[in-house]
Specification:
single chain; alpha/beta; seven-stranded parallel β-sheet; 9 helices
C-alpha cells in the first residue's frame, strides 16, 4: 500500500486530497498546525476507509516545522510515495498595507517550504524509481497580483523545472493551479467574496479529481476546469497592466485552498 503526505491537510484542498486518497486506499501522513483537528481527521479517515493515517503537527512558517516534515519525507523505512504540498494562505490588503513580516512568512511557506519538502521527497523517490509530487499553486501565478501571485508563479516555474530535470527517473512532478475554490481559505484570510461571480467557483473534490487524473497522465501543470483554461489562455492576449487592473476588482488574489 502506498503512502501520501499532505500538508495543510485539515481544510480546503488538503482535506479534499486526504478524502480522495484515503478512499483510493492510500495510507496518509497528515500535516497541519492543529493537533486536535489532525487527530479527528485521522480517526475519521481510518474508520471510513480502513487506512492508516499518521499525524504530524508542524508549522511550515518555521524551520522546526519544515525540518520535522523533511525528516519524515526522507524516511527509507516508511517511504512516502506521493507528496501534496498544499499548505498556504493569503494576506488581505495591497502591497505596503501588509506587514513585511507577513509577506516574508508567505514566502517561507509558499516557496522555501515547497523547495525543501520537494527536495526531501524526490531524492528517495528517485532512488526507488517511482513517486510523485503535487505542488499547489494558483491561477494567480499567471496574473500580476503582488506577493501571493509571485510566490505561486515561483511554484509553477520551480515545479516544471524540476520535472524536466527528473524526466525519465520515474518521479512525476506537477503544479496544480486552480481558480476560486469553495473552502475556508478566503474566510481565514478575512477576504470578502461577494464580488466573485458564482460561475468562477470550483468544487474542491472536483479539483482534486482533475489534478490526480492530470498527474497520472504525466502533466507538469494542471489548470482544472475548462473555464479557467479558457481564461488563462485569454490572459496571454491581454496587456499585463490592464490585467492587473481587472484582477484588482476581484480581490487581492485568485485563490485555491
Amino acid at each position: 500500500m502506498t503512502t501520501a503526505l499532505i500538508t495543510g491537510s485539515t481544510a480546503g484542498l488538503g482535506a479534499a486530497f486526504a478524502r480522495r486518497l484515503a478512499a483510493d486506499g492510500h495510507d496518509l501522513v497528515l500535516v497541519a498546525r492543529d493537533t486536535k483537528r489532525l487527530r479527528e481527521q485521522a480517526t475519521e479517515l481510518h474508520d471510513l476507509h480502513g487506512i492508516e493515517a499518521e499525524v504530524l503537527t508542524a508549522d511550515l512558517s518555521t524551520d522546526t516545522g519544515i525540518e520535522a516534515v523533511t525528516d519524515r519525507l526522507g524516511s527509507r523505512r516508511n517511504p512516502v510515495d506521493l507528496l501534496i504540498n498544499n499548505a498556504g494562505f493569503g494576506n488581505k490588503g495591497r502591497f505596503l498595507d501588509v506587514p513585511m513580516a507577513d509577506e516574508l512568512t508567505m514566502l517561507k511557506v509558499h516557496c522555501e517550504a515547497v523547495l525543501r519538502l520537494t527536495s526531501a521527497a524526490v531524492e528517495p523517490m528517485r532512488e526507488r524509481g517511482r513517486g510523485g509530487v503535487v505542488n499547489v499553486a494558483s491561477v494567480a501565478a499567471f496574473v500580476p497580483r503582488g506577493t501571493y501571485g509571485a510566490s505561486k508563479a515561483w511554484v509553477v516555474q520551480f515545479t516544471q523545472g524540476v520535472a524536466k530535470d527528473l524526466a525519465g527517473s520515474g518521479v512525476r512532478l506537477m503544479a496544480l493551479a486552480p481558480g476560486f475554490v469553495r473552502t475556508e481559505f478566503h474566510q481565514r484570510a478575512g477576504m470578502g467574496t461577494d464580488n466573485i461571480p458564482n460561475w468562477m467557483w470550483l468544487d474542491a473534490d472536483n479539483v482534486v479529481a482533475a489534478a490526480l487524473a492530470d498527474l497520472s497522465r504525466g502533466k507538469t501543470l494542471s489548470i482544472p476546469d475548462p473555464r479557467y483554461k479558457t481564461l488563462m489562455g485569454a490572459a496571454k492576449l491581454v496587456p499585463r497592466g490592464l490585467l492587473g487592473g481587472l484582477t484588482s476588482r476581484t480581490g487581492r488574489k485568485y485563490g485555491p485552498q
